[in-house]
Amino acid sequence: MFLGVLFSGGKDSVFACRRAMETDSVVCLITVISENPDSYMFHTPNVRWAHLIAEAIGVPQLLWSTRGEEEAELSDLRDAVAAAKKSYGIEGVVTGAIESVYQAARVQRICRELDLWCYNPLWQIDQVEYLRLLVEEGFEVIVTGVFAYPLDESWVGAKIDDRLIRELESLQKRYGINPSGEGGELETFVLDGPILKKRIEILRASKTYENYRGRLTIEEARLVDK
């Protein structure tokens, strides 16, 4: 089956892409760039750099823009998926949704309207085990945004490793935080992984943080040989 992956450059979309590649043909990556940093539907930190990951994977990327207005952005997503169907002949759409009914239900509705299969390979996965799986399979992931107490400034730019996963597991028990950030607590960006032929090197980045909200903004990056 020919599939298009909703692709932001974050860990969930990249890992979902890997899972889809194991059974089907991923023919395009669909990246929606929102003008609204607090979009309800779309990952926003550093999404403009997702093209480097697409290039490293070796799959064409379809870029689409949206103003990011609630519900109206769904029309933009539908247009993007329709364009992918027309240009690449996709028969289904892959998402990295884990627990977000808001996102999953809306993508499924769009897929029904366009007569496409909706594939959610990470749906209801144990979030801590999922993070461990990312590390075990060789994904290099950094935290590019934090948006919840008690995530302090040290989390911004931190690499997801065994130590960080243990900390997230502890915060899940103490504060109810979703370890994978499914509740909007954190955002990520993938620098390397088993499906990437090259890795991303960040050359320049800036950090902002205030009142448990922080972002790492990539300002210059490139692909380098592994």
From TrEMBL:
Domain of life: Archaea
Alphabetized InterPro entries for the sequence: Diphthami_syn_dom (IPR002761), DPH6/MJ0570 (IPR030662), MJ0570_ATP-bd (IPR022427), Rossmann-like_a/b/a_fold (IPR014729)
Signal sequence region: none
Diphthamide synthase domain boundaries: 5-222
Gene Ontology MF term list: diphthine-ammonia ligase activity
A Pfam family annotated for this UniProt entry: Diphthami_syn_2
Record GO biological process: protein histidyl modification to diphthamide
Record-given protein name: Putative ATP binding protein
Species for this entry: Methanothrix harundinacea
